[in-house]
Amino acid sequence: MVADRGTWQLTAGAAVVGLALAAAAVTAAGPWDNGQRKAEREHAAALGRTGGADHQVAGRGSGAADAPGPAPAPSAPGVLAAASAPKTPSVAPADLAGVLGPLLDDPGLGPLRTASVVDAATGRQLYGRGAGTAMTPASTVKIATAVAVLSATGPAHRIPTKVVAAPDFRAITLVGGGDPTLDMPRLRALADRTAKGLRDRGVTTVRLSYDTSLYKGPEIHPIGAGNDNIAPVTALMINEGRLDDSTEGGARRSPDPAGDAARAFVGLLSERGVNTAAGPIRGRAPAKGPALAATHSAPVPALVERMLTNSDNDIAEALARQTALATGRPASFAGAEAAVTDRLKRLKLPLAGARFADGSGLNRADKVSAALLTTLLVRAADPAHPELRPALTGLPVAGFTGTLSGRTAAGSGGLVRAKTGTLRGVDTLAGTVLSADGRLLAFAFLAGDTPSAAVARPALDRLAAALLP
């Protein structure tokens, strides 16, 4: 932050107004969960402003996962409702250039830096440097994955895991639907329903197979096998293939998560008095076999929020494939890339130079521009697209949630919501803040060939904090 900002410098009174509007917008941004976002709101309102790769949070998204069938997720209120645009903007592009330019020149951001700041209510670009240049985005590409899947599937969609029986019920198949959030409690519930269905028919011994045929192409992400940041991408797994009891961050992953899930299911059936004559073996479910039992993931909007908050790579790849399935394409890396690209084209987004080689951002072949990221955020804030709102409400909150929980540069705690991105030599940040007059600003800062994340991240955080009142 600099001391002399011209018209960008705020009076103390304007700062108070900005904080009140910021608190109102945090209130409007999404449902309160476990008091966490209430704490964010209270922290933001209480701040005195005098002077001048990263993963899944335990327990999120699983509360309603065993619903007997799909049901819509509740929608958050419009994010622009508390940020109506005044006729005269308080933020002039020239002022932002004077503030952001020196911060963007920080050597910690390396030689390749692009930026875009946009008024979300009007779509007007307030600041840009190389905004249309496509760069490797790292995990900020998950914003594109989020918007694509939300536009393709709708709020009611849940990812199923099913048990399908042979006509005589002497053989059953565990069918993966692509849900990486399947966990042992839900697998036990699935075993309960399966065992009951078999007992009701007088069956106590079955042959068990498991079906992962929904996904096509290679299971191993291009970054290679044995990476702690992602499991093999398969349609059937438990707890993202983690080999410990963690639910977030890096962890050793199973080389065969589908087989592990099937073997766990065998054990659960055995505990319930159902024996398996052989198996489990990989196979295909009978085309017209009766459905014996099913469990469903949380609705897609909840999965999107979980993915964004914790930069969850396994959920990201699953949601990219759900986009492919919803648009009639193969559930593969290539099919997902085509589907995501098509959905974003339909939203009339600036895709020059863009590529979505995966859904998670682990692939360095991904390319997006700062302008594309800010336009994605603007679309998600648009009252005409309420289905896209979780792409905003899922963004981590500085100092509080997900991958921003430990990042509070220059008093940004509770006031900056943004998706982080980090690969070796790549550091990015894209999200939203409120200006002094209550305008929702979308921003994206991308840096390449950075010397280290330890110096690049604080530099990015200072850029976002400079947009605050």
UniProtKB/TrEMBL annotation:
One MF annotation (Gene Ontology) recorded for this entry: serine-type carboxypeptidase activity
Biased composition regions of type Basic and acidic residues, renumbered to the chain: 35-44
Pfam families: Peptidase_S13
GO biological process: peptidoglycan metabolic process; proteolysis
Keywords: Carboxypeptidase, Hydrolase, Protease, Signal
Keyword Protease: yes
Region (Disordered): 32-81
Signal peptide bounds: 1-28
InterPro entries assigned to the protein according to its UniProt record, in alphabetical order: Beta-lactam/transpept-like, Peptidase_S13
Recorded family membership: Belongs to the peptidase S13 family.
PANTHER family: D-ALANYL-D-ALANINE CARBOXYPEPTIDASE (PTHR30023), PENICILLIN-SENSITIVE CARBOXYPEPTIDASE A (PTHR30023:SF0)
The name this protein goes by in its record: D-alanyl-D-alanine carboxypeptidase / D-alanyl-D-alanine-endopeptidase (Penicillin-binding protein 4)
